[in-house]
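FAQ: What does the model actually see?

It sees only this:
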Amino acid sequence: MSVTVNDYAELVKERSPKSAVWKNCVSAYIWGGGICLFGEFIANLIIRFFKIEKKEALGFASIALIFIAIALTGLNVFDSIAKKAKAGTLVPITGFANSMASPALEFRSEGFVAGLGAKIFVIAGPVIVYGLSASVLYGLIIYIFKLF
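And it is asked to produce this:
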């Protein structure tokens, strides 16, 4: 018995799990917005209690969010939050902190150099490379347009 391409495509469509796209989008929006709102809350606390400018307070709030995300990753709590939040934890800075901490924790038994030092950039390395490359390209485009 031979299976045609159309028969196979129909079988795959029938057996594939249904995705709740809209539900996942709403969940990601709410959780991502909640994380950003929490960051603003931290910044406002810093402004109120330490009497510093908003620009510096936002930097400290980012550092606090990174620290919280790494601590939650180390306590194996971040993954359970990410399962509920869907992509909501990926967009803010917390997702990047988790992507740096996870491989480091997973391979720490291999030592500082071979494990922690080498594996920390497994996931985040391409993000850093493409982010830097895109920023250089964007800077060159702006520079060229300013020449004319």
